[in-house]
Design a protein that fits this description.
- By secondary structure, this protein is an alpha+beta fold.
- It folds into two domains: 4-90, 2-Layer Sandwich (GMP Synthetase, Chain A, domain 3), CATH 3.30.300; 100-161, SH3 type barrels (Roll), CATH 2.30.30.
- 33% of the residues lie in helices and 38% in strands.
- It is built from four helices and eight strands, in the order αββαβαβββββα.
- It has helices spanning 4-26, 63-76, 100-105, 162-176; strands at 36-45, 48-56, 83-90, 110-119, 122-133, 136-141, 144-149, 153-158.
- The chain has a five-stranded antiparallel β-sheet with strand order 7-6-5-4-8. Strands 1-2-3 form a three-stranded mixed β-sheet.
- Helix 1 packs across helix 2.
- The protein is globular, with a radius of gyration of 21 Å.
- The termini are far apart.
Amino acid sequence: MVNDSSVGMSRASLLNEVFEQAVAEIAHDPTFVAVEVVKHASAHRRGSTALSVTIDREGGVDVALCTQVAGYINDALASFEELYTLEVESAGLERPLLRPGDYQRFAGKRVRIITTLTINGAKTHRGILGGVRGTSVMLTTDSGELPLPLDTIKSANLEYDPRADLTRDKKERKQHA
């Protein structure tokens, strides 16, 4: 006799497997040129599966792109009868930095990095990202250059500064006047 809960779990595992495959295929689908999957996750909750995908693209992500990605994933999962929810969202202005390549790509941007160890008297560090040197992320702070070992980074995000946008807009208006 087959246990219904084990069948449900195997179907949920299959749902998760197809979700993972659909997310991986986004990078290779010509419809989604330059769309980056920043992170994705699935969690089983009370007979349902919660799926989430965070995306980014140079120039930003809009609702239409999130809807397209959600449609692509929903199409891949159409054969499943299991209940699931799907959330597709933009990485946002304060995008998380998750991979070593992110620290290189966003060099020159303002960031907030939280470390697992106290470094220079603090666990939260703010400054201008200087990329990666060896096994450390380089951060330019008011006190100078600060190397933060990659293996001590708990979380890191771009830090949005609305004043910088206002200053840039003001300069652009002056140039066009």
